[in-house]
């Protein structure tokens, strides 16, 4: 859902959720369990070594039932071994099967690696030996600190009302995943499989301001927590969920025409060209078809729903996933496209970026700049919803909107 990247993994995940009817996942979330969230870090980056130090305080590294203090004056190196971890501090080397790094109070863990660059994290980093190949700590952090980071990680804008919109969505999506975690040891990941989470973004306090201004607020429909999907740029109109993923139509994820509110996005208009020979190769390799047998069917709002390739009919979502896997995330940016074919080339002419279901991030910015408040923007893109707050649910369980 990041503005700069097409959420390929997220699309796959949501396809699975909708096609399975989400009947096997949890159906409610106790409010008593919403204080903290656990996020898997770096599982898509193959991090082999981390250097950490404290920022604005002291860290405690716990290994083999011993405490090691880390300040801001020297880096501590953590590496993955076959059966655990190796860390080096002031020339001393310690091996441990598991370890944790705790940032106390307002202190932060300053982290650097070749893959991540400089980052800062609140809370605790749990190194639990989840994989043998790389460093994949789990960050246990307060829900509100997580929302503040996701707000800026996902929506790199400076408009407070647009950021408040993103904060509410980020919190709602986090709560959904806390009720239906992707893994027994963590709730979600830090990339587009879930939501982009880059740690504490100390250079932009406006992100935290937006989160604090909407503290505890989340979205419900018919008194149930919704699956708050969103994408970068809808191209002028969002899509109903059933046109992108199989499954039952959800009343709060239906088509909304936003009158080109997202037209300022550099993804609003796009095109992508392949030679006819290359496109034939793609179709043959992925669908055992050819350009002569290729045609599209659209929904009422102009999005491609399915494609005909010979005697096969495939979903536009499946086609797009195959396409961007082969040609990259900036090739077929959305399913809102037309096709022009000639003997020499095949040109995809499209609008928007992402799956287009739910809120449009660039559209939210456009509406906010026009004077809309965050609550009005949310009710516009998710029609029929109510804004609820964790403080009013007390000891209740929040049910999830399944249909």
Task: Explain what the structure shows.
By secondary structure, the chain is α+β, with helices and mostly antiparallel strands. It has three domains: 95 residues, no CATH class; 127 residues, no CATH class; 83 residues, no CATH class. It contains ten helices and 26 strands. The strands form seven sheets. The chain has a seven-stranded mixed β-sheet. A six-stranded antiparallel β-sheet has the order 8-7-6-3-10-11, with no helix packed on it. A three-stranded antiparallel β-sheet has the order 16-15-25. It is globular and about 70 Å long. It starts with 7 loop residues before the first helix and ends with a strand. The relative contact order is 0.16. The N terminus is likely disordered.
Q: Layout of helices and strands, plus pairs?
A:
Blueprint: H1 8-19, E1 28-30, E2 36-40, E3 49-55, E4 59-63, E5 66-70, E6 76-80, E7 85-89, E8 92-96, E9 99-103, E10 108-113, E11 117-121, E12 124-127, E13 138-142, H2 143-154, H3 160-179, E14 188-189, H4 205-213, E15 217-221, E16 224-225, E17 230-231, H5 241-244, E18 269-275, H6 276-287, E19 294-298, E20 304-309, E21 312-315, H7 316-327, E22 337-341, E23 345-351, E24 359-360, H8 361-369, H9 374-381, E25 386-389, H10 390-393, E26 397-399
Parallel strand pairs: 2-14, 17-24
Antiparallel strand pairs: 1-26, 2-13, 3-6, 3-10, 4-5, 4-9, 6-7, 7-8, 9-12, 10-11, 12-13, 15-16, 15-25, 18-23, 19-20, 20-21, 22-23
Helix pairs in contact: 2-3, 2-4, 3-4, 3-8, 3-9
């Amino acid at each position: 859902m990041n503005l700069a990247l097409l959420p390929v993994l997220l699309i796959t995940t949501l396809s699975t959720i909708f096609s399975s009817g989400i009947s096997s996942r949890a159906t409610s979330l106790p409010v008593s369990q919403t204080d903290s969230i656990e996020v898997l870090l770096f599982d898509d980056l193959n991090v082999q070594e981390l250097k950490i130090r404290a920022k604005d305080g002291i860290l405690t590294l716990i290994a083999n039932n011993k405490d090691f203090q880390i300040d801001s004056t020297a880096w501590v190196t953590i590496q993955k071994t076959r059966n655990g971890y190796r860390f080096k501090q002031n020339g001393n080397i310690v091996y441990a099967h598991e370890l944790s790094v705790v940032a106390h109070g307002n202190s932060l863990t300053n982290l650097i690696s070749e893959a991540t660059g400089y980052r800062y994290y609140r809370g605790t980093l749990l190194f639990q030996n989840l994989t043998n190949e790389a460093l994949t700590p789990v960050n246990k952090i307060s829900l509100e600190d997580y929302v503040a980071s996701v707000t800026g990680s996902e929506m790199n804008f400076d408009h407070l009302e647009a950021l408040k919109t993103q904060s509410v969505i980020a919190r709602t999506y986090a709560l959904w995943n806390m009720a239906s975690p992707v893994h027994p040891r963590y709730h979600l990941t830090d990339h587009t499989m879930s939501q982009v989470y880059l740690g504490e973004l100390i250079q932009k306090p406006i992100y935290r301001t937006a989160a604090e201004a909407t503290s505890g607020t989340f979205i419900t429909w018919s008194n149930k927590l919704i699956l708050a999907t969103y994408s970068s740029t809808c191209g002028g109109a969002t899509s109903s969920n059933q046109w992108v993923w199989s499954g039952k139509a959800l009343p709060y994820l239906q088509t909304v025409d936003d009158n080109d509110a997202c037209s300022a996005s550099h993804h609003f208009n796009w095109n992508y060209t392949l030679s006819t020979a290359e496109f034939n190769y793609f179709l043959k390799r992925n669908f055992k078809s050819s350009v002569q047998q290729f045609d599209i069917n659209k929904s009422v709002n102009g999005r491609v729903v399915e494609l005909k390739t010979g005697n096969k009919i495939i979903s536009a979502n499946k086609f797009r996933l195959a396409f961007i896997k082969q040609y990259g995330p900036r090739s077929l940016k959305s399913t809102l496209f037309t096709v022009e074919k000639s003997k020499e080339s095949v040109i995809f002419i499209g609008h928007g970026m992402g799956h287009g279901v739910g809120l449009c991030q660039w559209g939210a910015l456009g509406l906010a700049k026009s004077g809309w408040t965050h609550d009005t923007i949310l009710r516009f893109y998710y029609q029929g919803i109510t804004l609820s707050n964790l403080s009013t649910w007390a000891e209740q369980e929040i049910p999830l909107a399944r249909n």
